[in-house]
Amino acid sequence: MMEFLVYYLLGTFGLLIIYEIIKCCRGKECIGRFLNCGAVTLLVILIDSLRSVVELIVSHLTPYFIPQDVNPLWKKYGNWAVVTGCTDGIGKHYALELAQKNINIVLISRNIDKLKNVAEEIEKYGVKTKIIVADLSKGTEVYQHIEDELKDIPVGILVNNVGGQYDYPMPLCEVTLAKAWEIINLNVVTVTTLTRMLLPAMVARGQGAIVNISSGSEAQPLPLMTVYAATKAYTRSFTYAIREEYANKGIYVQHVSPLFVSTKLNSFSQRLVDGNILVPNAATYAKSAVYLLGRVSNTTGYWIHGIQYFFITLAPQWMRIMIGHRMNKDFRNEHFRNNKVTAQ
Ligand SMILES: NC(=O)c1ccc[n+]([C@@H]2O[C@H](COP(=O)([O-])OP(=O)(O)OC[C@H]3O[C@@H](n4cnc5c(N)ncnc54)[C@H](OP(=O)(O)O)[C@@H]3O)[C@@H](O)[C@H]2O)c1
């Protein structure tokens, strides 16, 4: 309702501006009319910023006022979750957090030994696990096996977490085609295929949750991480669209856009690996993100990332692209310095 009202107001003011400009071009009181346009434009900017503030508050503060476990996740969505890329980083801690909420976990990742270790850790919480070994960078060939393995499991929550990134920031001509395909397969093909695979049964049951782990890099193109950011823009678009398509089928679709988290994905920068108040470790991050599951539709997953995201997205896109480029040049130089190689 609030969204509708804001769009309605923005639309009305947009038309007003056009109307004032047309009138101004015809009439004599040009200066006065231009001043009117200026005031209206300012109002539009203010309303748009206000909308961002409202969104920020709704996304990041209201969840904390909703009492926990009024309706536990397993009851709302079902007691089996699938987590992809669950043997390390954010995915591993999502799986551990969900297990603590009495949810059985299907673990999908590429390394059998790591999968067994995580399964053992998870089972300490008294839930069941199922392991599926799959190299998700291989593209479509791996999904028949996954579908066969999942056919008897009523999956209530799908956490599309697996993701790939460059080894360090680089311009496109330095990215091998194999690496580009790996990233596209992990970040785009997996989200699309698993969602398409598991959604029909959720719709038939009238309940289910799809959680798509995107990245703050979806907010604008990101030079030196071009392919990665573009895949995350796909995730955002895909997530927002299916949410709308299945809004009245009992399906909850969440878009999670983390900023930096200290995991091996960022091993090109020691500063990111070490972490700090802005760069939480995966356990802290996932605890917060799982707390927000079912509470908000769009989130960065972590309060301080929410504040950062809010301020970042206030800046115009061209400025964010420029700053992102500088930041990545900095990380690239750090990587070359640490590896005693000269940047080209
Ligand atoms: N970390 C950040 O700063 C950050 C920021 C924004 C968004 N994200 C997103 O968050 C998600 C998780 O990232 P992360 O930082 O937790 O990454 P991570 O620490 O590198 O963990 C990635 C997980 O995916 C698994 N995996 C990697 N390649 C695979 C493949 N080919 N087939 C199957 N499994 C594979 C890894 O398995 P192994 O254990 O075998 O390596 C690991 O379990 C990604 O979608 C990423 O884009 C991360």
From TrEMBL:
SUPFAM superfamilies, alphabetized: NAD(P)-binding Rossmann-fold domains (SSF51735)
Pfam families: adh_short
Keywords: Membrane, Mitochondrion, NADP, Oxidoreductase, Transmembrane, Transmembrane helix
Record GO terms (molecular function): oxidoreductase activity
Origin: domain of life: Eukaryota
Cellular compartments annotated: Mitochondrion
Transmembrane segments: 6-22, 34-54
Membrane among keywords: yes
Record flagged with keyword Membrane: yes
One GO CC term, this protein: mitochondrion
The family this protein is said to belong to: Belongs to the short-chain dehydrogenases/reductases (SDR) family. 17-beta-HSD 3 subfamily.
Record's protein name: Inactive hydroxysteroid dehydrogenase-like protein 1
Native species: Leptosia nina
